[in-house]
Design goal:
With 275 residues, the chain is α/β, with parallel strands linked by helices. The protein has a single domain (10-270), classed as L-arginine/glycine Amidinotransferase, Chain A. It has eight helices and 15 strands. The radius of gyration is 17 Å and the shape is globular. Bound molecules: arginine. Arginine (ARG) binds at residues 25-26, 29, 70, 73, 75-76, 95, 126, 171, 173-174, 260-262, 266.
């Protein structure tokens, strides 16, 4: 069932109070490139204001925690399906400390918290995105391919697994962004041949972004109805392609979050998701 288009979208965000590069678990992260704390805070606040004030989204806040610097990337907290919160189980121990914090929040927020068996890694909405009534799940670098079966039982929908092929695009949401049930942004070389064919068969209008735009995380876009929030500096061509399809691009500067391998989409989790 597609995400409800009428009600105001509800998102989960976490202020980057303790956000830092404290370890290296993807090719973007380098201990030699620390976060400029003040700049990160200002960039996150500008995104928060755009979402809540201009675009009228409702945002719930997860309290930051000093021991888990990547908690600000709430897209990885889990996947919401109606009143069920499918909790993530991170591949790297560096992020596993987020799991009990998120679990506590989800229970207090009234969700039924579901966990996959511990042998499956699953990184939430970072690797799981709906296209119409199909859930697409990226695997290899973070989530496990085998998780797609138990996931499909939990969400009671068809789940298609897509293998990721380029470690710079280690989560599905770094190289793929559904804009509607039949339109999406993608960076084709981030998928293997089979994954490319699956997407081509499922989505009639695929907008392939250039490598330059992909590296600016153009596919890590937040989509709220016809509004597409993405990193500044993406190409004029991409802007035109969005506008031709009646989407309004909203550029935001999130350079401090690129240092950890994330951009706009990674900083939010959709709570008003599939029923
Ligand atoms: N440093 C984080 C990690 O490597 C970044 C997560 C980005 N999140 C996302 N949904 N792509 O896990």
């Amino acid at each position: 069932m597609p995400r409800s288009a009428s009600a105001a979208p509800i998102l989960l965000m976490c202020p980057p109070t303790y956000y830092a590069i404290s370890y290296e678990i993807n090719p973007w992260m380098s201990l030699k490139r620390p976060v400029h704390v003040q700049r990160a805070r200002l960039q996150w606040e500008a995104l928060y204001r755009l979402l809540t004030q201009r675009l009228r989204a409702k945002v719930q806040l997860l309290a930051p925690h000093p021991e888990v610097p990547d908690l600000t990337f709430t897209a990885n907290a889990g996947l919401v399906c109606g009143r069920t919160f499918i909790a993530s189980h991170f591949r790297y121990p560096e992020r596993q400390g987020e799991e009990p914090i998120v679990g506590r929040w989800a229970r207090l927020a009234g969700y039924r918290v579901a966990r996959l068996e511990p042998r499956f890694h699953f990184e939430g909405e970072g690797d799981a995105l709906w296209v119409g009534s199909t859930l697409l799940v990226g695997f290899r670098f973070r989530s496990d391919a085998a998780a797609h079966e138990p996931l499909s039982r939990l969400v009671r929908a068809e789940v298609l697994a897509l293998e990721l092929a380029d470690k710079r695009f280690y989560h599905l949401d770094t190289c793929f962004s559904p804009l509607s049930a039949h339109t999406a942004l993608w960076y084709p070389p981030a998928f293997d041949r089979y994954g490319q064919r699956v997407l081509q068969r499922l989505i009639p209008d695929l907008i392939a972004v250039s490598e330059r735009d992909a590296l600016r995380f153009a596919c890590n876009a937040i989509v709220l109805g016809r509004h597409v929030i993405l990193q500044t500096g993406c190409s004029e061509r991409l802007r035109r392609q969005l506008q031709q399809r009646r989407f309004s691009p909203h550029p935001v500067e999130l350079s401090e979050f690129h240092k950890a391998g994330g951009s706009a989409k990674c900083l939010v989790l959709h709570l008003s998701s599939h029923a």
